[in-house]
Design goal:
Blueprint (H helix, E strand, L loop, with lengths): L5 E5 L7 H14 L3 E4 L11 H11 L4 E4 L2 E2 L5 H14 L5 E6 L4 H6 L7 H18 L5 E4 L4 E5 L13 E5 L2 H10 L2 E4 L18 H14 L7 E5 L2 E6 L2 E6 L8 H5 L4 E5 H15 L1 E5 L4 H11 L1
Parallel strand pairs: 1-2, 1-14, 2-3, 3-5, 4-5, 5-8, 8-9, 9-10, 10-14, 11-13
Antiparallel strand pairs: 6-7, 11-12
Helix pairs in contact: 3-5, 5-6, 6-7, 9-10
């Protein structure tokens, strides 16, 4: 059976008062979004800290889930990230937190913060160990872990989670190694274009054709011991929805330079009337098993689709 549709929306920026920010989060909850998500960056004008934003958003709402899409693994030690997420899970009452993790891809941010930007294989290996540490700390027994990147000795993960057995983990990425890791270790698999250290934005859409998305889903499913339990997440990179004769939309930086042919060939593009967009999402779910969507930053475009499918 296909999984139920779920939708996430971006957290509003800090270009408004705190009261307006909280009101916008409550508005998203009322629209039927399953979660609100926040990225993890240092540079290019990015101001929000994801842990603080997730905490405030959870406190401002009653059912909306909060999600990092995704934490950059190199920015936080997994013991500290577990402690933050375990606390947020308890304070929010359980079943409100989703922990998104990625290996990091933006070399300029590492350099700006004085962090070493290792080769992809090294960063993915470290991400795998980090997931083992975080999931281990959510278990009952104290954790001892002796890895290449992290060493943990007889550490009890506290507080105990309100969610059982723990908050779900999302791992997002575009390469085979990351997606196989997601299939083995995550509950939710984020299907993304593969981005190179230098950005790779110009080539992103070419990596999000129907064939490439099917391959990426296949890598994760093949690596999983229970592939039917996996939930797959996809961000729509170019959205243009016609509502009442007016077109609303948003374009990701990853789709900004794409040709019309590349846009037309990608399941990660949503163009047309509300009914046509709904039909395409149903088709994407049936064809690829993807049911968890980010529909871009324009709420006028996303809201009527969420209303029909959430």
């Amino acid at each position: 059976m296909p999984k139920a549709f779920r939708f996430t929306a971006s957290m509003p920026g800090l270009n408004r008062t705190p009261a307006q920010w909280r009101e916008q989060i409550r508005r998203l909850e009322g629209m039927g979004f399953s979660s609100v998500s926040v990225s993890d960056h240092f540079t290019d004008g990015w101001a929000m800290d994801p842990i603080v934003a997730m905490t405030v958003a959870a406190e401002a709402t009653s059912t909306l889930k909060v999600l990092a899409l995704v934490f950059c693994n190199d920015f936080r030690h997994p013991v500290l990230l577990h402690k933050s997420m375990a606390n947020l899970d308890v304070f929010s009452g359980g079943n409100r937190v989703e922990i998104g993790l990625g290996a990091g891809w933006k070399q300029s941010e590492h350099e700006a913060a004085g962090l070493t930007f290792d080769a992809p294989g090294e960063r993915i290996e470290r991400l795998g160990e980090s997931i083992e540490v975080i999931t281990g700390l959510f278990r009952e027994a104290p954790l001892t872990f002796d890895g290449k990147h992290y060493r943990i000795t007889d550490l009890q993960g506290l507080p105990r989670p309100a969610s059982r057995p723990r908050p779900p983990i999302l791992v997002g990425g575009g390469s085979r190694k990351v997606l196989e890791l997601a299939g083995r270790a995550a509950d939710i698999v984020g299907i993304n274009p593969r981005l190179t250290a230098g950005g790779g934005l110009a080539a992103a859409m070419a990596d999000m054709t129907a064939e490439r998305i099917a391959t990426k889903v296949g890598w994760a499913r093949a690596a999983s011991t229970d592939p039917d339990a996996l939930e797959f997440q996809l961000t729509m990179l170019d959205v243009r929805v016609t509502v009442g004769g007016e077109t609303h939309g948003s374009t990701s930086s990853q789709a900004r330079d794409a040709s019309p042919e590349e846009l037309a060939a990608s399941p990660a593009v949503l163009h047309g009337s509300v009914g046509e967009c709904v039909d395409k999402l149903v088709e994407v779910r049936e064809k690829f098993g993807i049911s968890y969507f980010h529909l871009g930053s324009n709420l006028a475009a996303a809201a009527p689709i969420v209303a029909k499918l959430s």
